[in-house]
Design brief:
The protein is α/β, with parallel strands linked by helices and 158 residues long. It contains five helices and six strands; from the N terminus they run E-H-E-H-E-H-E-H-E-E-H.
Length: 158
């Protein structure tokens, strides 16, 4: 469903399992920090809203969005998480770099989900401009971080 037709922060809280006994890893890109920090804030607050203990939410940063795949892989291998969330933002520019990064991260996360036991939730914003990113990081379309946290809880329970 197109984000323009759905607020990313709207969900039925009654359909979200209790997360009090779950442990989550979050890998956040340092690139576009205004956006990724807002996504992180949304994810953490939503996890805690559903019972996740602060000490069971572990955040690691990577330099850019391409490195999210490596960070997620390391977390799924070594740290005993029930789910891992990746958060990043790629904004289209004047070169094909956008396409390569988006495709690489999408493929990498899909592969992790197909080959590992720990679900990895895709929280990479891929927007045409900064305003679209702001709209999806706590702006008029909600916060993708909230949505990712709900997905992580549901997938951990799956």
């Amino acid at each position: 469903m197109a984000t323009a037709l759905h607020n990313l922060s709207d969900y039925n809280a009654d359909q979200v399992p209790d997360a009090s006994n779950m442990c989550f890893g979050i890998v956040v890109s340092e690139w576009n920090p205004e956006i990724t920090n807002a996504l992180l804030e949304g994810a953490v607050s939503t996890l805690e809203k559903h019972g996740a203990l602060p000490e069971n939410i572990h955040v690691k940063t990577v330099p850019g969005s391409f490195e999210l795949v490596y960070g997620a892989r390391q977390m799924t291998r070594n740290d005993g998480y029930d789910a891992v969330i990746i958060l990043g933002c790629v904004i289209r520019g004047e070169t094909p770099h956008f396409d390569y990064i988006c495709q690489g991260v999408t493929y990498g996360i899909a592969r992790l989900n197909a080959t590992n036991e720990v679900p990895v939730v895709f929280g990479l914003l891929t927007t045409n401009d900064l305003q679209q990113a702001k709209d999806r990081a706590g702006g008029r379309l909600g916060n993708k971080g909230d949505e990712c946290a709900v997905v992580a809880i549901k997938m951990a329970k799956f």
